[in-house]
Structures are given as structure tokens and as C-alpha cells.
Design goal:
The structure holds 3 protein chains of 3 kinds.
Chain A: E1 4-13, E2 16-26, E3 31-35, H1 42-49, E4 57-62, H2 73-94, H3 97-105, H4 115-127, E5 131-135, E6 138-142, E7 149-153, H5 156-171, E8 177-181, E9 184-189, E10 192-197, H6 200-246, H7 250-255, E11 258-260, H8 273-281, H9 289-294, H10 301-317, H11 332-345, E12 350-354, H12 362-377, E13 381-385, H13 389-395, E14 398-403, E15 406-411, H14 413-417, H15 420-427
Parallel strand pairs in A: 3-13, 3-14, 11-12, 12-13
Antiparallel strand pairs in A: 1-2, 1-4, 5-6, 6-7, 8-9, 9-10, 14-15
Chain B: H1 5-16, H2 22-27, H3 34-57, H4 65-80, H5 90-109, H6 117-137, H7 139-142, H8 158-167, H9 176-197, H10 200-210, H11 212-217, H12 222-248, H13 258-271, H14 276-300, H15 303-308, H16 315-329, H17 338-353
Helix pairs in contact in B: 3-9, 3-12, 3-13, 3-14, 4-5, 4-6, 4-12, 5-12, 9-12, 10-12, 13-14
Chain C: H1 2-44, H2 51-67, H3 78-108, H4 117-138, E1 143-144, H5 166-188, H6 190-200, H7 202-207, H8 212-238, E2 240-241, H9 245-260, H10 265-285, H11 291-305
Antiparallel strand pairs in C: 1-2
The chains are: A alpha/beta, B mainly alpha, C mainly alpha.
Chain lengths: 433, 354, 319
């Protein structure tokens, strides 16, 4: 079983195919090189393997599995929570949060506020129930938004019975009629007289008000539902989409045990050498926000331990004397070595080196070769892109040759060296004279 | 890194200032008592420190910090003012305001994670406008343009202060209570930020500013780092807002506009991006100038000059020119963080070489 | 039955068209300002915060020309009004171009190699300076742009349900030619090509012999001229100017530029029109006080789904 298995990998940018249908397999403990002329798609392969690009098609497996954040129940719950929150916010926006607030809180003060009352008022506003408010022995019946008084009552029973009748009118306001009895106007639902007012005009006016309340509350209910479910959908799907997009993101791949260096050095230039390595150690820290904020006593055991590991790594690449220099002040070769140390700090199983010897003089690249061998002897598999053929041929166990995004050869250094297709790709076709 | 000794000294001086008697001597006939302005300076400093987390450490250009300041102020006001039914206790309100602003910061940050620098600046700027529109338009919650008032002070804390004051042979001074509360929160904020600066989170913030892609390739989630910067930055702004509400005693929508965001950004840049000392100094200079020096000078100026020129009328011009000159001649601020200083001067070297 | 339906329908339809016209005219003005933002951004990647305030200063300058310099005397006849508008736009555009060019020369050029934050902060500084100048000129109260409407406010369509005035015609009639001219200029003129080259790669274009500083200066001048033209039309169209209008309109215009895809000229126009339409629709069908909030909600939505704006191209980061 191959350690890293790349199958049928294709990467297209717009219409341009940078890599097409490349497959190779790296065994554990190998130094595996990818070579090829400039523009052959080598770095693109690296970028896909480390999750910077999502491949157009193809499959990458490390130790038999695709590195991606797993789908868990907890995640589902988190999306649901985001959805509920978004739904709540959107609902609030659609039902006029200002009136909602008034309906919920205006009748309460410090001494009367309880959770039950708040809930009662809030749900009353949403469902459009009429409200009874008691103040100093007087009862008043308010419209659902609690913006005006419909009637006042003398006792609680009176208020309740009126409320009941009014609710009935509101619910049946479509079929309610007005009847004139002895000059007084009565609002009738079926045969039942529910409210009697001094004349017909007053009664029809009142009925009009009840109709408005009914229209208002059915509209508010619709809006609340649209907001709640629409917002839920947006939030849930949005969270899902973010997870989807970030599933194979670089940080996930890196946590899965693949670390890399970059062709054009990407250090944190204005941080010190040791800080650069410590950023690589980040995933081994366990302290939370509170712990970090409270760490007034200075350096924690955790920090100490990681500092020690980082120091060891710097010693390993030969930068321990420069630990407190700024990364950007390092000479070029040191910067490359620091990038390697930073990558090693994440404790990878597979290390991707993108032209580590670029710009190095022969003695530096000899040192680099030794370093790569030492990394391998730590049990780390290495995938290498390099143009210096002497390095590649000397240390690689196996080589893949890419040209214009297509694999043209694979084999041991000897096999590749004598492969006519490779020679052609590098030197051009031999002229027949 | 140690807590520099002069910070202890500064704290000590600030602690004894209200009892020093300077207040009554130095100001005399002039208009502004310094002490009642100093307590405002403290919460503006917290606000600037919050912005510094976003802009200075993490390089996220946040132009809507005033909105979070306002959110903190309004949450604190709503939770305590008698016209709303909650009437909570001072510390609960401050804590809830901080948390509320932090949560909203994350809510704003989450959908904008993918945006590059200037786009983020615009979205935060726009968010500021939206929040201000809400402050003005939600009549029942925020009481619209007239605002919420009064916001009660935690008067029971006055007792030990007055006792101390009596013991030292001075009458109770009106600015003592909020002066000390705000100072305490400021010191707390500085200590927490200093700890964070030297923790893995602080490193991740700076690394995010330096190279986001490289950071993610180290197995660090840039999403989390960004959101934490937003949460802490906006949370501090909310804390500052709550202190504002309590110190002033009322909130209304006008102060929370873009000018406040811009001036706070000025404080951060004037003092030095990413440097706590710098930000404190920057706030002291800018707000000190705005709140203390300029009213003093204006009141001391003869009438015939005042007709044509007062610093109060030309303060924006002065701020603007200060910003321009600063960027031209000392872009790293007065007390630059070691890192930023290097960063800003690197470009000179590159320019020369190119 | 059918006639009633038609009548009901056409009045709703009329209202809709009415909002479209207002939105379009407003949007065109935003677009004109947005072009200044987007051109400068396209070439130096700087959000020129002072641009909106330049419009504000331009309006005050135009007002100064009308009232103090006595240009207003021209506006008594139709021909006179046209002449007055042409002169005003020419003079204000020149002045604004000069100011913007000076801005670049004095403030931004020395910062060309500085990190992105430095010119941005300077821009905020300039915006403060402009705003202060504006408030010193006008005082806190908004100023009226001339005693009477310079351009008539009478409905051109008579009693018809849709209200289109000479002002709408003026705004649309002036901005569209300007935009077409600008597009042609950037596409075909030598300076326009140099601008595009500098925007793509300043160093390479400098190596090709393009004086990049001068090209950038010219870009600022053109952006300033557009702002100047917009400022005159703003004054005439709204008839009321104040020193805070620079910030508000600048924000709308900047939003327009970003919505359309900053750096893209057609993007700025589309964004401007979109913002104008949204604003008038919200004011018409909802409440005006929520217009800002809704515009920014739309902005956030667009940026979430298309982070580079409507017309912007998604750039892949080079690794």
C-alpha cells in the first residue's frame, strides 16, 4: 500500500490545463522527486496536494485516506445553531424589532419582569393575541402590538370575557356583520352578538379595526415564518458551504501530517527565527483564550516545552545561533533552511520541498542534501521538486518527470536518466542530420 | 518580556492624581478640569487598544470600530437605565456589553472572511453606517435621536473612595469613581493584551498579517485567528463603550460615527501600530489635545483671535494634517512596535535597491 | 373590467417607472464619483477617501462661482442656462482636477513605495482637511445652491403620472456622454493605454518607458475632473449642499465601485446605477431611513458570494 497515492490528478485554470491525469505513488520512507522543465506543473501538484487548490479531478490519499475534516454530529449541531441564530435575526428584522420590543417590554418594569411574562408578551406579539394589562386595579385590553387601547374593563373576569369575545371577532372578522338594535350597533358573528356600541357607525368602525388587527397579525405571522425558516436555511446552508469549502483547506491537510516549503520563500519575515518555528508548533498548544489572557506569570510549561522543541529543530537545521534574528535578515540559504525547520515543527509524516536548493552554491546544496537525508532518517517521507540534477539523481529513490502537465516518465534515477522522452523534454528533439 | 517599569510608574501616578490636589491648583480659572477628562481618556484608550488588535496585530483594516463602541454603550445603557425594565448591576452590564459586542464582531467577521483588505475596510465602514441607522431608527429600544438617559452609576462604590478622600482631608471629587473604574479596566485590558501578544494567539495574529497562506499551511486555521481578532478587538471596543455610557451618564447616536472610527485609527497610527505603549501614548496625545489642550488654549485666547480662529473649529484640519505629516515622515508611529518599525522601513531599502 | 385593471396597473407601473428614473439619475451621479474611486484604485490600489469630500468642495466652489463671481446672471434664459452649466462644469472640473492632482503630487507620490496603509491613512487625513475647509466655508447649516432652481423642476410630461424634470434629463444627458468619452479614452488614447499598462504592472510599464508618476497624476486629474462635474450636477440636482455630503455620497460611490468590481470602469457605472436604484426603491416602497442599512446589506451579500464584485475577476493567489 502506497503512503501517498495521487491518482488521475487534473488541474485546470479556466481553459488552461496545468496538470492532466497525473498518477504516482510514494512509498513510506522514500525520497521521491518530481522533475521537469519550467511550467511542467510541478508546483501545481504541490499546491493541490497541500490543499491550496481543489483539484479539478483526481484523488489524493495519504496512508489510504483522503485528508478532510470529517462530518460529525457536533458539526451538524453547530450548523443548526448558526441557522437558528440567523433565522432569529432575520425574523426580528422582518417583524419590526422595534414594535416587538415595545410589545414585549413596555408593560414591564424592574419589579414585574419575569421570564414567563416576557415570553408571554413576545409570543403574544408574534401570534397576534390581544393583551390585557393591569395597572392600579384597572384592566385595559390592548391590541397585539400594545400600541393602543381597545377597551378598559373593571375587573379581571370582565377583562377576560371581553378579551375572549374580541378574539372571536378578530378570528371571524371576515364573516362578522353589523346589526342595528334600538339604534345601537352590534357586531355579530353568526347569531352571537359580541360587542355592542352606541351606534352603527361606531360598530362598523370597530369592526374595521378588528379586521385590521386580523390582517396585521396574519401578515406578521407570515413574515415571522419566512424570516425564521428563510434565515435558518441561509445560515445552515452558509455554514455548510463554508465547511464544504474548507474541508480540504491547507490547515486541515497540514494537521493531517503534510508540511511544505515554498518555491518563493514565504516566511513570516518580520518575526524572529524562533517565532517562525513556534508558529509551526501552534497545533500542539492546548491552552485556550482564557489561559493565554491570564498567563501573567510569564512562560507556561507548555510554552517552555514547545520552545525546547523549536530550539532542537533550529539546531537540527543549524540555525540555533540565529534564533533571535528577524527571518528576513537571514541569508538566502538560511531562509530556506528556516522554512524547512518551520515545516518540520508541525511534525509531518510527509514533507514537500519545493526547489529547496534554488539559489544555493554547491557547498550549500551539499549541506542541503545531507539535511534531506537526515530528515528521511527521522522517518519522514519526502516529496521533492528540484532543478539541480546532481541533487535529484543523488538522493532520490524514485523520480517522476512531468512535461506540460503530463507525466512522461517514472522510475529510478538510472531509468529516468536514460529515458529518451525525458531527454527530449529537457534538451529538445535530436536533429537528424 | 517584562512589564516595563515606567508603566508601573504611570499607573501609580494616575492612581494618586485625584488626591494630589493638582486639580484645584493647576486649572484655576480655566474651563476644563483635567480629571473629568482623564476618565474619558481611559476608555478611549481601551477603544484604541481594541482597534489595535484588528489593525495593528492582525492587519485587518477595521473602519467601523465606532459601531462596536456604540453597541457596547447601548447594551450597557439598555440594561441599566430606568426606562427599560432590566436595571442590572454595573459589572453585569459591563460584562454583557463586552460579550455582546464581541459576538456581533464575530457575526460581522464570519461572512467577510474571504475579503481582501480594502473590501473588508468597506464592509466594516458600511456596518458602522448600518448600526448608526439602527441607533437612530429604533425608537422604542434606543429612544431614537434623543438617546437613553440617565444611566445610573454604581454609587455604592463611592463609599470607600469618599472615606479615603475624607481621610486625606479632601472633599469628595465628582470624577473619582469613574476615574478609578475606567483606570482599572484599562490596566486589565493592557495586562490581558500583553499576555495575548506573547502567546501563540499573538504570534498567529502577526503571522496572519505577514502571510496568511503560509500560516494556514502550518496547520493554523486562518478563520479562527481572524475571528478571534475580531472578537477581542470588538469586545474591547464594547467594553470601552459600556464605560463611556456609565461615565457620561447618557447615550445618543451622534458620537458613534465614522469620525470616531477615524480618530481612533489616528490614535493607533500616531502612537504606533501593534504597540501597546504606542497606542496608549497616541490616545493620550490625540484625545488629550482634543479634550484638554484645545479647550484650554481656546479659553485662554483673546477675543479678537477667537472671532477668526479657535482650535475647536479647526480640529479636523489639525488631525488631518497630523495624519498626513505622520505618514510622510514617521509612518511607524511615535513608539513603534519593533516588528512594525522594521516592516515599514524595509520598503525604503527595497525602493533604493530596485 | 379591463379598463379598471389597466388603470390600476398603470398607476403602479407609473410609480415604478418614477422610482427607476429617480434612481437612475441618482445612480448616474454616484457612478460619476465612483469612476474617480475606481480609476485611482485601479492604478495605485488606493482607496482615495478624500474623493467624496472633493465632490463636496467642488459643489461649494460652483456655488461660489454662481453667487460671488456672478455667473448666476447667465441663467436667465434657456441658452444662458445651458451656457452657465457648461461653464460651471468646465471651471469646477478643472479646479477639482487640479486639486486632486496636487493631492497626488504632494501627499500620495512620496508614499508610492510605502505599505498600503500609509497612503490610505493620508487619504483619511486629506478627507478631514477638506471637510474642515467645507465646514469653515458653509458653517454647520446646509447651503442652498442658488436662490432658485437653476434648472427647471417642472414636469416635462405635463400632467402625466410620471414626473420627469429637466434636471433628470440634464444628469442623464451629461453623464452618459462623459462615460462614453472616458471609455473610449481609456481604450484608444495613448494616455489611456499607458494608464492601463501602469495599472497592470507599474514597474514593467516604467521599464517600457511609460512615465508612471505622470500617468498616475493624470489619472488623479481625470478622476478629479469627474468629481468636479458630478459636484456641479449634485448642486443643481439636489439644490442643497452641506459639508457632510462628501462623506455620505463618497461612501455610496465607493460602495458602488466595490459592488461593480473595483478597478473596472463599467463596474463602477453598473454599481452606481444599482445603488441609486436600490436607494430610490427603498425610499419609495419602504422607508427612506432604512436605505443605508439595506444598501450595505446588499453590499455584504454581493461580496460574500462574489468577493471581487459583480464584474471583478477572481484572482488566484500566486504561490
Amino acid at each position: 500500500m502506497a503512503f501517498l497515492k495521487v491518482e488521475n490528478l487534473s488541474m485546470r485554470f479556466g481553459g488552461l490545463a496545468a496538470v492532466s491525469k497525473v498518477s504516482f505513488a510514494v512509498e513510506k520512507g522514500q525520497i521521491f522527486s518530481i522533475i521537469g522543465p519550467n511550467g511542467a506543473g510541478k508546483t501545481t501538484v504541490f499546491n493541490v496536494v497541500t490543499g491550496i487548490y481543489e483539484p479539478t479531478e483526481g484523488d489524493i490519499r495519504l496512508d489510504g485516506k483522503v485528508e478532510a475534516t470529517p462530518f460529525t454530529l457536533l458539526r451538524l449541531l453547530a450548523w443548526t445553531a448558526v441557522g437558528i441564530l440567523t433565522g432569529f435575526v432575520l425574523m426580528m428584522a422582518l417583524i419590526n424589532v422595534d414594535r416587538f420590543w415595545r410589545a414585549t417590554f413596555s408593560s414591564l418594569d424592574r419589579s414585574t419582569i419575569t421570564f414567563g411574562r416576557v415570553w408571554n408578551n413576545a409570543s403574544g406579539y408574534l401570534t397576534g393575541r390581544l393583551a390585557i394589562v393591569e395597572k392600579g386595579g384597572k384592566w385595559t385590553i390592548l391590541d397585539p402590538t400594545r400600541s393602543y387601547v381597545i377597551q378598559s374593563a373593571d375587573s379581571e373576569e370582565d377583562a377576560n370575557s371581553r378579551l375572549e369575545r374580541f378574539e372571536k371577532i378578530v378570528a371571524n372578522s371576515g364573516i362578522a356583520t353589523i346589526q342595528v338594535v334600538d339604534g345601537e350597533g352590534a357586531i355579530m358573528v353568526g347569531d352571537e352578538s359580541l360587542l355592542t356600541l352606541q351606534n352603527q357607525d361606531a360598530a362598523s368602525q370597530a369592526l374595521e379595526e378588528f379586521r385590521k388587527i386580523e390582517v396585521d397579525r396574519s401578515r406578521r405571522k407570515t413574515f415571522a415564518l419566512i424570516g425564521l425558516f428563510g434565515g435558518f436555511a441561509v445560515g445552515f446552508l452558509g455554514a455548510f458551504a463554508m465547511w464544504r469549502r474548507a474541508r480540504g483547506a491547507p490547515e486541515v491537510i497540514a494537521r493531517g501530517g503534510i508540511a511544505r516549503t515554498f518555491q518563493n520563500i514565504r516566511l513570516f519575515h518580520n518575526m524572529t527565527v524562533i517565532e517562525n518555528v513556534l508558529v509551526g508548533r501552534d497545533r500542539f498548544y492546548r491552552s485556550g483564550l482564557i489561559g493565554m489572557a491570564m498567563n501573567a506569570l510569564g512562560i507556561t510549561p507548555e510554552e517552555n516545552q514547545n520552545l525546547r522543541v523549536a530550539g532542537d529543530l533550529l539546531r537540527f537545521v543549524g540555525l540555533d545561533a540565529k534564533a533571535n534574528m528577524l527571518a528576513k535578515n537571514l541569508p538566502y540559504g538560511d531562509q530556506r533552511r528556516l522554512e524547512i525547520a518551520r515545516a518540520l515543527a508541525t511534525e509531518p509524516r510527509l514533507l514537500l520541498l519545493d526547489e529547496p536548493a534554488a539559489g544555493m552554491n554547491p557547498s550549500e546544496s551539499a549541506d542541503l542534501m545531507k539535511l534531506i537525508e537526515q530528515i528521511r532518517s527521522r522517518g519522514i517521507t519526502i516529496l521533492l521538486i528540484e532543478h539541480h540534477m546532481n541533487i535529484v539523481m543523488a538522493i532520490s529513490d524514485r523520480i517522476v518527470v512531468l512535461d506540460h502537465g503530463v507525466k512522461i516518465a517514472e522510475g529510478t534515477p538510472e531509468e529516468v536518466r536514460s529515458n529518451p522522452a525525458v531527454i527530449e523534454a529537457y534538451l529538445g528533439k535530436e536533429e537528424v542530420s | 518580556m517584562r512589564f516595563p517599569y515606567w508603566r508601573h510608574l504611570a499607573i501609580l501616578l494616575l492612581l494618586i492624581y485625584p488626591f494630589s490636589g493638582l486639580e484645584s491648583v493647576a486649572i484655576g480659572a480655566l474651563a476644563t478640569p483635567i480629571g473629568s477628562q482623564l476618565d474619558k481618556l481611559f476608555f478611549y484608550a481601551i477603544l484604541a487598544l481594541g482597534l489595535n488588535v484588528c489593525v495593528g496585530y492582525s492587519g485587518l483594516l477595521h473602519l467601523g470600530i465606532a459601531a462596536f463602541f456604540g453597541i457596547g454603550a447601548y447594551i450597557a445603557a439598555i440594561l441599566t437605565t430606568p426606562s427599560h425594565p432590566f436595571q442590572m448591576e454595573y459589572f453585569t452590564a459591563v460584562a454583557l456589553a463586552t460579550v455582546g459586542a464581541a459576538v456581533l464582531g464575530v457575526a460581522l467577521g464570519a461572512p467577510t472572511l474571504r475579503l481582501r483588505g480594502d473590501y473588508l475596510a468597506l464592509v466594516t465602514l458600511g456596518f458602522g453606517e448600518v448600526v448608526k441607522a439602527y441607533f437612530i431608527n429604533l425608537d422604542n429600544i434606543t429612544r431614537g435621536a434623543e438617546g437613553l438617559t440617565p444611566i445610573p452609576s454604581p454609587d455604592y462604590l463611592n463609599v470607600p473612595l469618599n472615606w479615603l478622600s475624607e481621610a486625606l482631608g479632601q472633599g469628595p471629587a465628582s470624577f473619582h469613581l469613574h476615574y478609578y473604574l475606567n483606570l482599572t479596566f484599562l490596566v486589565l485590558a493592557v495586562v490581558v493584551l500583553r499576555n495575548l501578544e506573547n502567546s501563540r494567539l499573538g504570534r498567529a495574529w502577526v503571522a496572519l498579517r505577514e502571510d496568511e497562506l503560509a500560516l494556514t499551511c502550518m496547520g493554523v486555521s486562518a478563520t479562527r485567528v481572524k475571528l478571534s481578532a475580531f472578537a477581542i478587538g470588538c469586545g474591547l471596543a464594547g467594553l470601552a463603550g459600556a464605560l463611556y455610557a456609565f461615565s457620561i451618564g447618557s447615550v445618543s447616536p451622534t458620537p458613534f460615527d465614522f469620525n470616531l472610527s477615524a480618530i481612533t485609527l489616528c490614535c493607533v497610527i500616531l502612537g504606533g501600530l501593534g504597540s501597546i505603549d504606542g497606542v496608549l501614548l497616541g490616545t493620550g496625545l490625540l484625545y488629550g489635545f482634543d479634550r484638554i489642550v484645545s479647550p484650554l488654549v481656546d479659553s485662554a485666547m483673546p477675543e479678537w483671535i477667537k472671532q477668526y480662529f479657535t482650535i475647536g473649529n479647526w480640529r479636523l484640519m489639525i488631525f488631518g494634517l497630523a495624519l498626513i505629516l505622520m505618514m510622510r515622515f514617521r509612518p511607524e508611529g511615535i513608539i513603534p512596535s519593533k516588528r512594525v518599525q522594521r516592516e515599514l522601513h524595509e520598503f525604503d531599502a527595497k525602493g533604493g535597491a530596485a | 373590467m379591463i379598463p379598471t385593471l389597466l388603470a390600476v396597473d398603470s398607476s403602479a407601473w407609473q410609480i415604478f417607472v418614477q422610482h427607476c428614473v429617480t434612481g437612475l439619475a441618482n445612480g448616474m451621479l454616484f457612478a460619476l464619483i465612483a469612476l474617480g474611486y475606481t480609476m485611482v484604485y485601479g492604478i495605485v490600489e488606493l482607496v482615495n477617501f478624500a474623493h467624496g469630500d472633493l465632490v463636496m468642495l467642488g459643489s461649494f466652489f460652483a456655488l461660489f462661482c454662481i453667487s460671488t463671481l456672478g455667473f448666476g446672471a447667465l441663467g436667465s434664459s434657456t441658452a444662458g442656462t445651458v451656457l452657465l452649466l457648461v461653464i460651471l462644469i468646465a471651471v469646477t472640473a478643472t479646479a477639482a482636477a487640479l486639486v486632486n492632482w496636487l493631492n497626488d503630487r504632494i501627499v500620495y507620490r512620496p508614499l508610492r513605495k510605502a505599505p498600503r496603509l500609509a497612503p490610505l491613512v493620508s487619504a483619511i487625513g486629506i478627507s478631514f482637511v477638506f471637510m474642515n475647509i467645507g465646514s469653515a466655508i458653509s458653517g454647520a447649516r446646509p447651503a442652498s445652491f442658488g436662490q432658485n432652481d437653476l434648472v427647471s423642476n417642472v414636469n416635462l410630461l405635463g400632467d402625466y403620472g410620471i414626473y420627469i424634470t429637466m434636471k433628470d434629463v440634464m444628469v442623464i444627458g451629461i453623464t452618459i456622454p462623459i462615460m462614453i468619452a472616458l471609455t473610449l479614452f481609456v481604450k484608444h488614447a495613448k494616455l489611456g493605454k499607458a494608464m492601463r499598462a501602469t495599472a497592470q504592472d507599474p514597474v514593467a510599464s516604467q521599464l517600457m518607458g511609460i512615465p508612471s508618476d505622470r500617468v498616475i497624476g493624470a489619472t488623479f486629474a481625470i478622476g478629479g475632473a469627474l468629481a468636479g462635474a458630478a459636484s456641479v450636477m449634485f448642486g443643481v440636482y439636489i439644490n442643497q449642499i452641506s459639508f457632510t455630503m462628501g462623506y455620505t455620497n463618497g461612501l455610496y460611490a465607493f460602495t458602488a465601485a466595490v459592488v461593480g468590481g473595483i478597478g473596472k470602469l463599467p463596474g463602477a457605472v453598473i454599481g452606481g446605477i444599482l445603488i441609486g436604484l436600490i436607494r430610490s426603491m427603498v425610499s419609495g416602497y419602504f422607508e427612506e431611513r432604512w436605505a443605508t442599512a439595506i444598501i450595505f446589506a446588499v453590499l455584504v451579500l454581493i461580496l460574500v458570494f462574489r468577493p471581487a464584485g459583480l464584474l471583478g475577476d477572481r484572482r488566484r493567489e500566486k504561490v
